[in-house]
Amino acid sequence: MIHLSVLPFSLFLLLDFLGVFAGAIGGGLEAMRNEKYDYDFIGVLGLALTSALGGGITRDMLLGKGPPLAFQDVRYLPTALAGALIALAFRGHIGPRMRNAIVWIDAAAVGFFAVAGSTRAIDANMTLFPALILGTITAVGGGALRDVLSGRTPRVFESGQPYAIAALLASAVFLLENNLGVSRPVSTSFGLAMGFLVRFLALRYNLKTPSMRERGPAGF
Question: Which of 40, 48, 55, 121 could form a disulfide with 141, with the two C-beta atoms 3.0–4.6 Å apart?
């Protein structure tokens, strides 16, 4: 007899599932617009699932509190598959608007994952700094793994839109308010709002993280 585990629903699981769903859509769309490789159905699904579940699995492995939640709760995989299939439904329709949608979907995933990762950490009795790191890893880990499997340096390490910074600030705001005794729903809302705000400002004003490459006198 196969036993399907379902964890008690909570605010943390809501955020984690929303992050998984958004991450799968963003990962699938990103795979289909890849200019270097021509992915088939399995390739798009694989990269979408990596984007959706990679950060959370990495977080749970670092916590060492048993198997990753994605392997414990039967709802994770269908949630990720649903997002991947929605992405596939847009095959052949990825124009400028869809490219903008990918950015916003990634922004949503960053906020959801960052706060969910930090929530998971403090619920496992981690202190503030480890919780901050695990929140950030949850947010950027799936995308980084997707980029590696796509044959490129993870974008989170390159000069560009502040992705990891948005995750760090979202986690920091949530953890600060939670540490001050603010109710969990309120601290969660402010953490999510911070993640969205940073991404919005970056997109609105084309803000980018500076390159650390050393250049010679002539700019080389």
Answer: 55
Q: Which residue in 65, 94, 86 sits closest to 23, CA to CA?
A: 86
164's tokens: 């990891």
pLDDT digits (tens, 9 = 90+) for 171-203: 999 999 999 999 999 999 999 999 988 987 887
Closest CA to 30 of 84, 110, 111, 108: 84
Cα distances from 64 to residues 4, 49, 121, 144, in angstroms, run 22, 22, 11, 21
Report which of 178, 180, 87, 70 is spatially closest to residue 132, judged by C-alpha positions: 178
How many Å apart are CA 162 and CA 175, to the nearest integer? 20
